[in-house]
Design a protein that fits this description.
Order of helices and strands: HHHHHHHHHHHHH
Structural class: mainly alpha
Radius of gyration: 23 Å
Number of strands: 0
Distance between the termini: 38 Å
Number of domains: 2
Helix content: over 70%
Largest sheet: none
Strand content: under 5%
Number of helices: 13
CATH superfamily of the largest domain: MetI-like
């Protein structure tokens, strides 16, 4: 009886967590298919389906351009974070030099600062280099937070790779870059997918830097674009368009997570079990 009660309690807790996590997005989907006064009616299942909100978001204004901006910036952030992260992780994990541990903890500590703490100084840097209202301002600022996490995870993963593989490559005359690209890289896909996807999600959803460093609709990213989808008064807020835009932005992330689910789990658990 006690075992049955524990099982029931466990599945009840899982159900509560799933409902709390999934219901807001589900209700956003339902609301995105509503128009007019139906937007203010509480329905857990759409009585009628209309795609007018999606058509309006994708054909009016600069939202498609904002999607392209977010995709470009997030992709470049992931590419640079992985490129610099792999090389830095190899040096920190395999090359012997003084202060490795201090450097590693310093890199990780950078990502612990809240965005507001570095916003003023970062704004001065971006303005000095003339990057205001350009994608490069966001790429530079996003990497401040994605690169430390990438380096930390990849360093842990490389440390767990067998040293004999690297020694065999060195005996065959392989250079450090050949070891990274030809030996380690094929073994690091779980960690690369995990860190790359988390960096992509972080850059895709970032709001504060995107709001601060961009000033026109052609350069803004989707989080800022959604926040600015409002009318002149609170009664004119296009809730249907906002919900449709939110669904459009969220669905690609969900698809990516579902596609790479196994590699993400493998990457997150890398180094957790020692043989």
């Amino acid at each position: 009886m006690a075992k049955l009660a524990k099982t029931f309690g466990f599945y009840l807790l899982v159900l509560v967590i799933v409902v709390v996590a999934v219901f807001p997005f589900y209700y956003a989907i339902v609301t995105s298919f509503k128009t007019g006064t139906a937007l203010f009616q509480v329905d857990f299942w759409p009585k009628s389906i209309s795609f007018s909100n999606y058509v309006s978001v994708l054909t009016q204004g600069s939202f498609p351009r904002n999607l392209i901006n977010s995709l470009f910036i997030s992709s470049v952030v992931v590419f640079l974070s992985l490129l610099l992260g792999i090389t830095a992780a190899y040096a920190l994990a395999r090359v012997r030099f003084g202060g490795r541990r201090i450097i590693l903890f310093t890199i990780l500590s950078v990502s612990m600062f809240p965005q507001l703490a570095v916003l003023a100084g970062l704004f001065e840097l971006v303005r000095t280099f003339g990057l205001i209202n350009t994608p490069f301002a966001l790429i530079f600022s996003y990497m401040i937070f994605t690169l430390p996490f990438t380096v930390w995870v990849l360093t842990t993963f490389i440390r767990d790779l067998p040293l004999e593989i690297e020694e065999a490559a060195i005996v065959d005359g392989a250079t450090p870059w050949v070891i990274i690209s030809k030996v380690f890289l094929p073994l690091m896909w779980p960690a690369l997918v995990t860190t790359g996807l988390l960096a992509f999600i972080g850059a895709w959803n970032e709001f504060l830097f995107a709001l601060t460093f961009t000033s026109n609709n052609q350069q803004r990213t989707v989080p800022v674009a959604i926040a600015l989808l409002s009318g002149a008064t609170s009664f004119e807020v296009p809730w249907g368009n906002i919900m449709a835009a939110s669904v459009i932005v969220t669905v690609p992330l969900i698809v990516l997570v579902l596609v790479f689910q196994r590699k993400i789990i493998s990457g997150l658990t890398a180094g957790g079990v020692k043989g």
